[in-house]
Amino acid sequence: MFTPFDRSVHEALGFGLLLAGFLGGASLGLGFLREGFLGGYGSPRRRLVRLAHIAAVALGLVNLEFARSGAAADGLASLGFALGAVAMPFACLCVAWTKRLYLVFALPVLALVLAAGSALKGVLA
Ligand code: HEM
Fold first, then answer.
1. pLDDT tens digits for 15-50?
2. Nearest protein CA to atom 18 of ligand 1, as residue
3. Of residues 56, 18, 15, 49, the one with CA closest to residue 32
4. What is the pTM of this model?
5. Whose CA is nearest to atom 24 of ligand 1?
6. Residue 75, CA distances (Å) to 4, 19, 56, 69, 117 in order
7. Which residues line ligand 1 (CB under 6 A)?
8. Is the predicted pLDDT of residue 1 greater than 90, yes or no?
9. What value does the CA radius of gyration of the chain take, rounded to a whole number of Å?
10. Distance set, CA 106 to CA 8, 67, 73, 76, 91 (Å)
């Protein structure tokens, strides 16, 4: 049903997200020693911005690994890992900005769960 992206797309996405994650971490690093930075270490905004940083790095690694795996031929997994990897850090930043956008998390969560499920089904088949 879904045509998988070329492996090079997942590789470019992987390294692009690593770069974005590192730059995001460096930006956090400019203020993280300041007591009240982004509302303080435990504030929802600070936690969500931190989560965006972690999600970009982790999902970048997931896409690089996916590009090298046998599951890379799976169209649904390819679409889900690509879409979910871009949408998750964005969802974190949107909700860090305003909690009213909480439901935007539904897109990356659904995309990543479907991707992992489809890849697993393919590997076990
Ligand atoms: C150039 C590379 C990186 C920079 C500049 C960076 C910077 C930061 C900074 C400044 C924080 C603290 C944020 C805060 O206090 O709110 C942080 C937290 C974190 N980073 Fe990174 N980071 C980098 C790479 C990575 C990598 C490669 C990983 C994992 C694979 C990672 C995982 C985490 C995690 C899990 C936290 C949360 C730690 C905690 O609970 O306080 N970071 N990073």
1. 999 999 999 999 999 999 998 999 999 999 999 999
2. 50
3. 49
4. 0.91
5. 22
6. 4, 26, 22, 13, 12
7. 22, 25-26, 28-29, 32, 41, 46, 50, 53-54, 57
8. no
9. 16
10. 27, 24, 25, 17, 9
Handedness of CA 98, 57, 39, 31 (dihedral sign): negative
Using one digit for the tens of pLDDT, what is the confidence trace for 64-103? Answer: 999 999 888 789 999 999 999 999 999 999 999 999 999 9
Q: Output the six-digit token pair for 98.
A: 């305003």
Closest C-alpha to ligand 1, atom 17 = 25
Residue nearest to atom 35 of ligand 1 (CA): 54
Q: What is the pLDDT of residue 105?
A: 98
Candidates 18, 22, 50: which one to mutate for ligand 1, based on the most atoms within 8 Å of Cβ? Answer: 50
Domain parsing of the chain, residue ranges: 7-124
Res 4: pLDDT? 84
Residue with tokens 């860090």: 96
Comparing CA positions, the residue from 89, 33, 87, 26 lying closest to residue 57 is 89
